[in-house]
Amino acid sequence: MSEVISFVDTVIVYDNFPAVAGATFSVASGEIVLLQGPNGAGKTTLLRACAGLLPIARGKATVLGVDLKSDRATVRSQVGMLGHSNGLYQDLTVAENIGFWSRLVGAGNDDIAQAMRLMGLSERLSEVKVSNLSAGQRRRCALATLIVRRARLWLLDEPHAGLDADGRDELDKTLRSARDAGATVVFASHEIERAKALATRSFKVEGGVVGEA
Ligand code: ADP
Predict the structure, then answer these.
(1) Is 159 in a helix, a strand, or coil?
(2) Residue 93 β-bridge partners
(3) N or C terminus: which one in the chain shows less Cβ crowding within 10 Å?
(4) Is the minimum distance from the CB of 43 to ligand 1 under 6 angstroms?
(5) 118-152 pLDDT, tens per residue?
(6) Which of 155, 136, 26 is nearest to 79 (CA)?
(7) Cβ of 45 less than 6 Å from ligand 1
(8) CA dihedral 48, 134, 37, 196 (to 10 degrees)
(9) pLDDT tens for residues 162-203?
(10) Nearest residue CA, atom 27 of ligand 1?
(11) Distance of CA 88 from the midpoint of ligand 1 (Å)
(12) The whole model's pTM is what?
């Protein structure tokens, strides 16, 4: 299995504060890795850094074989990141939001319909503006945009939050399928029981340091 993420003594700072204070860990292709840890531990910072959204202050960091210190743009284009905000265009419909991403990767209408089905979004919702969706439907829509992107690395910050029981099950099924199709998943969650059943490995994050759980 090839290495998808490799951090060695990696430091990430906000202003002068080291939110990640020398993280050393690696993730191999096909893993589903859970980041556990209390609020403020550094989980979101790690996920955002892996997505190429934050500069690396010190140490080494590569994602999908690309050096984050020299080329974050390439990493940004290759990973699928779901943060606390859904990253959707509120004034566009569900189909338009998913279609935006599908076109970028050459996927078609069938792929949009399949992504909606996988995330339990009924066909009726395809023409509804995101601003008119419920919070859970928005989360499902954001996850559907990740499905059509077919990213090699999925980075998910508390993906179960805001979903109902069916939505959480559909998400877990989707992540397992993505992994079966060759993707790697790293996610942060406070739903420890569900998350542990899904993960193939767990890391404990505390005070900006990463350790085996
Ligand atoms: P977690 O996701 O584990 O709850 P975060 O990665 O969000 O933790 O935060 C790690 C630390 O970095 C916290 O102390 C937090 O206050 C700080 N932090 C996060 N984002 C910022 C920011 N934009 N500016 C300054 N400090 C931040």
Answers:
(1) coil
(2) 129
(3) N
(4) yes
(5) 999 999 999 999 999 999 999 999 999 999 998 99
(6) 155
(7) yes
(8) -110
(9) 889 998 998 999 999 899 989 999 999 999 999 999 999 999
(10) 14
(11) 23
(12) 0.93
